[in-house]
Amino acid sequence: MLRTAIALSALTGKVVKVHNIRAKRPKPGMAAQHLCAVKGVAIICDARVEGAEVGSTQITFTPGKVRPGKYELEVGTAGSITLVLQACLLASARCNDEMRLEIAGGTNVRWSPPIDFYERLLFPKMSALGFQAQITDMHRGFFPEGGGRVEVRFQAPPKFAPLVIEERGRLQGVEGVCFSQNLPDHICQRVIAAVRKEMSGIEVKLKPSRTSGPSTGAGVFLLARYENTMLAADSLGERSVPAEQVGSLAARSLAQEMTGAGTLDMHAADQLLPYLALSSRSSRFRVREMTSHLRTQMDLVKKFLDVRVEAVENATGTEVNVCPSCT
């Protein structure tokens, strides 16, 4: 809610006040990654912010005008790079000049989208809407040390195209990447073997990627590619968790999406919704299950933009319709 609210504030020029930030968490208020997202958007749009500090449970965000350029942001330790990127990209969605962001922190951390999700699924989907974004440089960072760095170049379109996905179409294959840092070869080999065992009967093309860096970690990102869409799932390694379990969990998560009737996976749906609200034409997609994040996005875009968002649940999932006022 916080990230989307300040991004939409920058996008529309509307002042926003957010109260009770993470009020029910063991440590209420903004953590470092939330603060970095707020400060990042504030820098991009020359905003005035009250309450911008770690632990703050409320802020007032008064935006200025979004300015194109290159910006460098530091989350600190292993704070999620993608959650900061989420806010900054949306805040810039009405700036038609090229922009560049360099963000330091964690690329693959718990409770946030992996950088692979942005590179391999979200950015291609955004490209179909007209928003061009690409990762030009990337170094992985894991919890707790972090040390990751991502450079992204992007440019919003004059007009956003709609997204209408009625059916997934034929499955073209499953692909992905198994990554490890500062770990021996057999980690990726075991993860990949577990994925293939879990998804027996489906050809899985998995690329191992081994790197070295200031933090240690491993994981896998999977992508099911269809004629009309893509579905994704991932799993992150942890100490004392066998590599086989990491691979099996990712494969089972992807299988769950594939056996459902969604034309977008649950995570892609909430990430793309604000951009669909900026189109001049209606969009339509289906998810196998509504998430709290998607419901929050649906509520927020209606507060800032003149758009109608409807969700109709049926036996095969939930159909979501995004209808701008001009349609």
Characterise the protein shown here:
Helix 1 packs parallel to helix 3, helix 2 (32-45) packs parallel to helix 3 and helix 4 (115-129) runs parallel beside helix 7 (266-276). A four-stranded mixed β-sheet has the order 4-5-7-6, with helices on one face. Strands 9-8-10-11 form a four-stranded mixed β-sheet, with helices on both faces. It is globular and about 50 Å long. 47% of the residues are buried. The protein is 32% helix and 29% strand. The model has no long low-confidence stretch (mean pLDDT 94). The chain is of the alpha+beta class and 327 residues long. It has helices spanning 2-12, 32-45, 81-91, 115-129, 185-198, 243-259, 266-276, 292-304; strands spanning 16-18, 48-50, 59-62, 70-74, 99-105, 132-139, 148-155, 171-181, 204-211, 217-226, 230-236, 283-287, 307-314, 317-324. The chain is built from eight helices and 14 strands. The protein folds into three domains: 2-158, RNA 3'-terminal phosphate cyclase domain (UDP-n-acetylglucosamine1-carboxyvinyl-transferase, Chain); 171-259, RNA 3'-terminal phosphate cyclase, insert domain (Dihydrodipicolinate Reductase, domain 2, 2-Layer Sandwich); 263-327.
